[in-house]
User: Fold this.
Amino acid sequence: MMMDRYSLLQKIGIYAGIAAFLTFILLPFFEMFRTSLSPMDHLFHEPYELWNDEFSFQAYHDMWTKVPLLGRYIWNSIYIATVTTAMTMAIVIPAAYAYARLEFPFKELSLGAFLSVNMFTGAVLLIPLYRLMFALGLLNTYWAMIIPGVAFLIPTGIWLLRSYLEKIPRELEEAAFVDGASRLYTLRRVVLPLAVPGLIVVGTSVFIGAYAQQYLFAITFNQVAELQPLPAGLNQFIGYQTVVWNQMMAAALTGVLPVMLVFFFLQKYLVAGLTAGAVKE
Assistant:
């Protein structure tokens, strides 16, 4: 009886913790959605209204008129995040494999040096990055937002993928070497097919990171309106005396939708990748 009661209390505690965590994560999105449905004169209504008969989707229609380039901004964000992810993964895959399988001088020291880059925020390095972009003639181009993003995402990608590749048995590669396969061929034909769940996890993490870090690089390295990503484009909802909060929240939710769709369609593979290797046989 005591064990059953303890088990019940344990389950209640677990579900209560999960509910509190989901509430903490989802409450900002709910408030954004509620704000996007509210007329401007109801946004700061007292007392707080969870729902109102005047709520509508009008802001989702008006935002395209308020900011005519909104569609371009959303496309720019997707394009920048996609190219950043592709370039990052092209560098991360061979680098992570080298750290997982090869022995070379200063291996752990160099990996630690890579990770130390993540200790600095983008704001700390804006001045040297600006001078570099200026020297290379990349200001006011997509590359001015893509290259810094790649640089900041590589260390985390290497660390995550290296941990996954280390779980793949070396015997599979050794068998390929015995058959005369080169290391590059083995990586492409043996290792990468087995590492697909890990690649999806790392790629998704990199894509979300690339999508989230665009604002700082955009407002610093780009002054061309047509090249701005969505986070920078949202500034156009801010006027001299007022902020069109409902349209801004509607545009923000619309811009987040591509990331949510990526996560939704890859959810099964993300779970498989995150749990791979959790049980040691």
Q: What stands out?
A: The CA atoms of residues 156 and 261 lie 23 Å apart.
